[in-house]
Design goal:
Protein name: UTP--glucose-1-phosphate uridylyltransferase
Catalytic activity: alpha-D-glucose 1-phosphate + UTP + H(+) = UDP-alpha-D-glucose + diphosphate
Radius of gyration: 30 Å
Helix content: 25-40%
EC number: 2.7.7.9
GO molecular function, one term: structural constituent of ribosome
Pfam family, one: Ribosomal_S2
Shape: elongated
Strand content: 15-25%
Strand order of the largest sheet: 7-8-17-15-16-14-9-12-13
Structural class: alpha/beta
Length: 583
């Protein structure tokens, strides 16, 4: 059962869907129909409104806002008092008189009515939460007059004039059970934001900090995405183990969405259209590989992992052509909104957590309304790919750790250690060089609440095999060779290669364009035992060429080197055609 289904069942158990016998016309957008003369409220709409209300309350907590909870129903007084005590919010439960706010502006007039002046309301609240809106219409009128936002439960019989004054309506039956659920959600929202505020001010206790990352190694002032941030680095081996039960893995993967930024054009490689349209093997493109891989996971585990493509206007049409052969799969395309750089900087002025491209894409995704749709489907995390990574990127172990530890943002990184001398001593110290692997795991709720995510940075050191990026034709040579095979549309590494690392290949400018690259190879050489290859100048490769060890081929200006059919070059340096004849 997904999280979404569980929440809907919880709503149904509180009778939140049971409305009055007659529903006003303006309320019918929240109704599912009627049965036995009773209005049935759509629980999905209630869930969306609950999420919006809690997001607004969370934003106010971050700004140290003042709340006032209004209730005149004695049946739920104890529930609300317990919520106020738990959260520490100040509440005025003496609002039984009209003019609780507006009359406080004129105390003399207020006293002339022979009523007590309400000293607890000297400062106007930033939000009024009303649990019985029908009985407190006067409160709604006064809060609306002072332009104070109102969060309130609404029912089908509420008049339009009252309904329009409620900023965040929550359509539901105001039963004791639902009020208890609503108060519980408010309590958890406030406590969550209070904990984040305390952590930002350095008030996190020593007992709390290890819960986030017990095996974390703290690396100070590492520059990531052009910023200086503290990074908590986790080794892949230290992550929490994932259950071997296929049903548990299915439940885990059902919380995931794969989001690919598909705006990279292949013009640098001579390709018109997106770089993801480059063919890898027998008509299979980079995008096909990703789609086929996700589909294989959905079939294997019986889950539903959707793929969202964020296309640029220049890559959208070509991408749609590629996806024509992928009909029937859970793929959606969004054209990247033209978000200005100022908007992106403003969204992350406190802490620029994402790279610019990521911020822009996430802002566009948020504006499109996709995040709310994903939350309704029970999705919790986005795996963001902003490069043409051909590796198998979905790892249940990473996803499980993020969920268990409630980590909102985590990037996959590689760590390279170098030896350097320290000043003042003759000993050496280890310096860590962090390379962003361009895969990021992001909590959807955190994006929906606040795009710049005031949170700690986490990174997971992963093996380089999880990053198979196609950046230039040197990478294309690796993927088209016998080092990788395309099995049912999925890229698999040849087990015959004993070296876990891929060979280092550097092709000269003569191979830069894909068309030139393809014209210089009659067939792609075998590189299973290759360690390093450098090719410069006018070089042509024949059929069935085998490359082993360290090979350098350098054609002088005005000369051409033709590698004959069936040639085997092992630990060779070729500077001219005569070197091939003498070998």
């Amino acid at each position: 059962m997904t999280i979404h289904s569980a929440v809907i069942q919880k709503l149904l158990s509180t009778n939140a869907h049971l409305g009055r016998r007659v529903a006003e016309n303006h309320f019918k957008i929240y109704t599912y129909g009627a049965r036995n003369g009773m209005t049935i409220i759509d629980s999905d709409k209630t869930l969306v409104c609950l999420r919006s209300a809690c997001n607004f309350i969370g934003n106010l907590v971050r700004e140290n806002g003042r709340f006032l909870f209004v209730n005149t129903n004695p049946l739920v007084d104890e529930i609300i008092e317990q919520m106020i005590k738990t959260t520490g919010c100040r509440n005025d439960n003496s609002w039984r008189l009209g003019g609780f706010l507006t009359n406080s502006l004129s105390p003399k007039k207020f006293r002339s009515r022979n009523k007590k002046f309400n000293l607890t309301s000297v400062y106007p609240p930033d939000c009024v939460v009303i649990f019985d809106t029908e009985r407190k219409s006067s409160v709604i009128l006064e809060a609306s007059r002072l332009q104070i936002p109102i969060v309130g439960l609404v029912d089908p019989s509420m008049p339009l004039e009252t309904y329009k004054k409620i900023t965040y309506p929550v359509p539901a039956n105001d039963s004791v059970e639902f009020v208890y659920l609503f108060c519980n959600l408010i309590t958890k929202t406030i406590q969550y934001e209070q904990k984040k505020l305390a952590a930002a001010k350095g008030k996190v206790t020593k007992e709390e900090e290890p819960k986030i990352g017990e095996a974390a190694q703290r690396i100070e002032k590492i520059k990531i995405n052009g910023t200086d941030d503290e990074l908590f680095l986790l080794s892949y081996e230290s992550l929490l183990p994932v259950s071997s039960d296929p049903l548990k893995i299915t439940e885990l993967l059902d919380k995931l969405v794969i989001f690919k930024i598909n705006d990279n054009e292949g013009t640098k490689m001579g390709v018109n259209g997106p770089k993801s349209a480059i063919e890898i093997s027998n008509g299979v493109t980079c995008l096909d590989l990703l789609v086929n891989y996700i589909e294989s996971l959905n079939v294997k585990y019986g889950c539903n992992i959707p793929l969202i493509l964020m296309n640029a206007a220049s890559t959208h049409n070509e991408t749609l052509k590629i996806l024509e052969k992928q009909s029937g799969k859970n793929i959606s395309c969004v054209v990247k909104d033209q978000v200005s750089e100022n908007d992106v900087k403003e969204s992350s002025k406190d802490k620029p957590l994402y790279a610019f491209d990521q911020k822009e894409a996430l802002l566009s995704l948020k504006k499109s309304g996709k995040l709310d749709e994903l939350l309704l489907q029970g999705k919790e995390y986005i795996l963001l790919l902003n490069s043409d990574n051909l590796a198998q990127v979905v790892d249940p172990k990473i996803l499980n750790h993020l969920i268990q530890k409630n980590i909102e943002y985590c990037m996959e990184v590689s760590q390279v250690s170098n030896e350097g001398e320290t000043s003042g001593t003759n000993q050496s110290e280890e310096k860590s060089k962090i390379t962003n692997m361009m895969n990021s795991w992001i909590n959807i709720e955190a994006i929906n609440k606040d795009i710049h995510l005031k949170t700690k940075l986490f990174g997971v050191t992963v093996p380089s095999s999880r990053n198979l990026s196609l950046e230039e034709t040197s990478d294309l040579l690796i993927f088209k060779s016998d080092l990788y095979t395309c099995d049912n549309g999925i890229l698999k590494r040849n087990e015959a290669r004993t070296n876990p690392a891929n060979p280092t290949i550097k092709l000269g400018p003569e191979f830069q364009m894909v068309s030139d690259f393809e014209s210089r190879f009659k067939s792609i050489p075998s590189i299973i035992e290759l360690d390093d290859l450098k090719v410069n100048g006018d070089v042509l490769f024949g059929n069935d060429v085998i490359l082993k060890g360290f090979v350098t081929i350098n054609a002088r200006p005005g000369e051409k080197i033709i590698i004959p059919d069936g040639a085997m070059l092992e630990n060779k340096v070729i500077n001219g055609q005569q070197d091939l004849l003498s070998s």
